[in-house]
Structures
1.
Amino acid sequence: MVVQDGEFARRQGRVHPVPGRVWWHAVVGWRYVEREGEALGGRGWRAGAALVAAALCGALVAGTGGGRAVAADAGRAEVAVRLAASSVIAPGVEYRAFSVPASHGTAYGHLLTADLTERRVSVGLLTPGAVAAREPVSRMAVALHAVAGVNADFFDISEAQHPGVEATGAAVGPAVSDGVALKAAVPAGQRFGPPLPPGTSTRDVLGVGADRVARLDRLSLSASATTPYGTVRVGGFNQYAVPVGGVGVFTSAWGSASRARAVCGTDSDRAAPCGKDGYEVVVRHGRVVSGSPVPGSGAIGRDTVVLVGRERGAAVLRRLRPGQPVTVRERLVARSGAVPRFAVGGFPVLRGGQPLSGLDRVTAATRTAAGVGGRGRRLYLLVLDGNAENGSGLSIAELAGVMRQIGAVDAVNLDGGGSSTLVARDPATGQVTVRNHPSGGAERPVPEGIGLFSRS
């Protein structure tokens, strides 16, 4: 099945039709034709169209009837995906629009594909310069010279349950930029976003290693504070929530936001009241300089770390006195053993080409997702237009199906709704522009994004 792109453009209401171009239909239940594990695209789209059309004919002959292809495994909530012809953003980076007829109506979206075998292409963290800060994706992309990017992890967007406490804007999961760990994951009960699928964690990430291979991984915090009274396990690293009874460390990467949120909620209930038993210790050049029963705010110097404890952790920190030595060590440990150069949090929806069990099939929303194909050498970044308030959008189960259809073997769901944003450089002007329609008509400031970079 093919559709003239003028028809699709008119549905989009924003793309000018180009006569003679054709869109091809990835039929429900089938993957695109693959070559060495990678979804066919770009130069191979015509061959893909022919083979998919042949598959469609076979389905109709087999008796699916009514001129409509039906998935053999429809229970997996997979959907048909219409992809536009791609446009080259930079060597190894392509952009295209797509449409998805789904359970709540047709959703429209945008897709970036990065070929990591292209040595000029790299993947990096878009950041406003601090963990607890937010900026629009487009602004971060321009400032860091990315050619394209999308928003990333869910984040601490509101503290309505804790009057008087400032929302930090910090992300839920781990973050790594240029090989440097910036933060670890909050406890599962403290996260924002839809429920986690069974077997997943706030520690799950999408990462890219020094080997230039993208993969789904899990980053766990290994940290400690050595004091005159012994070594204390540290359970938080630049996190907006410290585990109950634990100690968290804040570094200069945190920024200037208040640390008061760190002692609010519990490991199982984000909305639980703020703890009354907290304590903060400031350590500069390896020695205690001050302590306070109230977590503070303000920039943290590069020669300084701040320890925040709650309950039992607070009791440990209260023993420390100015001048005493304290040594803090922290690192993120990857379950795969691969050291990431880049990583962002996101919960898995697709592993080994199979959607995870327990994915929500009912609630449709505007989505952002990232997927990996081609044995880790192809990265897919997907964002829907922000029209879920009108009844369209995708369920999490449908999103997993779409990611599989476009060629991903593994995929994570990222922050959606008003956060969903995809930007890409305009080849004609060189300017980075927003390609999707964000909910509410404007970009939402977010704490981080996935950036695609291309060396000249």
Note: The chain has a mean pLDDT of 85.
2.
Amino acid sequence: MLGYAVLSHEAIRTKLIEQAEKPVKATEKRPARVLFVEADGLYTKLQRRKRQGMEHAIAVVHEGWEQVGQRVRLRNKQHYLHRGEGDFWEGFGDFLTERYEIDEDTWLVVGGDGAVWIGECESYFHRCIYTLDRFHVARDLKRYVGHLPKIWKDARQALARQEPAALMAAVESVAIEEIASDKRDEWTAYKSFLRRHRKHLEDYRKTLEANGIDTTGMRPMGSAEAQMRVLAKRTKRGGYSWSERGSRAMLEAVMRRGQTGWLEEVEEHVGESPQRVVSVRRLLHDAIRPAKGCVEGMIRLLRSQWQSRPTGMALKGLRGY
């Protein structure tokens, strides 16, 4: 019908993997006084493996926020997808030094959901502020105290103002009898979690201001979930399952599509080979094989139990047209 062979699904997959696995490098190193990092994990199902799935450790780094019309977007956003068995923050440190002029005066503000591997950032970087993602805290608090209107309101407002003292006062005021019986053990553990992370609930801008950094235009952290939602939409929608290599390639492809323009692919210089010049005009004019006016193949619905349903019967009725 088209006059040329179309790409199969496997050919598309192969080309996607080849493109995603090409290394990239920064065309320039950008100066950075403060960098913002949103780290989170993304779980994808695996096919034909003993383990059912794997978690991808991902970080989104940007230089702040900028107003674009009625919307606010992250400035010079970059993605880091951890590969291999090495430590995440060591790999991320190499990623940063390739793209930014990092020195002892550079600050990192890291936002995360409280996972142990994210909290380790404070031991890897000299000037690092770790903050809990307020989306995850609010979601968990609502699960436990959402049925207590006053407590939930006080906790939500304290979280929005980034006042850990007021938040903990609201949390500590909850009697264990007010929590559903099947959630009491979880609630006790979660209160201990909030106590351990009390300093990570504070406004990071206060620390930066105390060190002489102008925080004008800086906003609260908390875009990790929105960034993960974009990636999850492509890798988890429809119950997809992947090979390890395929899932990484798809994530890389989605990430690079949204990268800013100061990265370029690393070209592998090999011997020059003559390239065939293709004329689109001639390709469309000269048929490679005679067109049949139809696509060769079958309609799967007519080979299944659905062929006797109204849709199948309607398609059968179109035979001969």
Note: The chain is about 40% helix and 20% strand.
3.
Amino acid sequence: MDPKKHEDLEFAYGSGHNNPLQAVDPGLVYDAYEADYTDFLCMQGYNTTSLRLIIGDNSSFCNTSKSGRAWNLYCPSFSVAVEDGHQIKAVFTGTVTNVGPPNSTYTLSTYMPASIIVTVEPSVLSFSTIGENKSFTVQVYGPMIAQQPIISGAIMWKYRDYMVRSPLVVYTNLPAMEDDHRIKVVFNRTFANVGSPNSTDTLSMHMPTSIAVTIKPPFSSFSVLGEKKSFTVKDYGPNITQQPIISGTILWSVLRRFTHLSLVLYTLPSPCLRF
């Protein structure tokens, strides 16, 4: 929980420690339903086929095939991804539900470095019944940033002993080149012979046909124990977006001995705080 020890700040340790006593009576909550997460996944690049695998509902579908930022998912956090060298500019819509006292008025407080302007409208949320919903808009503006470390702040709604805190994080996102999402990886590995002094390990591997894997050399010959040999693995494949994990194996074998190497490819998720 120490920001001095975690460079990723909220992305590393979340929004803070859980308080079980306050959790049973939080005052306000952010309601998120299945449809909200469906929209989020679709905006992150999942298609209808992959969406149904995740949700387990064959009636689910994506309304759009165009990827984008799903900022309005009703989770109690806000993250602003700014393309490197661009100005900070973002608008969010938040909706909270009153699960505390029926007649309550929450007032706003925020903290953020002075260089970033955060405005929230309205600045007061008044509730008359339990289960009542209120929406608000968060606007974040700031200067151009380049290779900026993560900037942390928060939005807080306060009423008596209740404090509903939403982290607000700004970070830079390096622009992607057109072929950045194409699978293209090169590994160099070295292993040592601890088996027979005179042996030749031959190669076999398993990988989905859409991924091209080449390994050079395709065999390794050893003459003494402890001798080392190196090999190069090259992986090539198509552009992938929010692709489920792709697994494969590389096997070096001699007689009945096998050296098994796992080969796993995966996509990095778009940054989104979840607390």
Note: The CA atoms of residues 112 and 153 lie 5 Å apart.
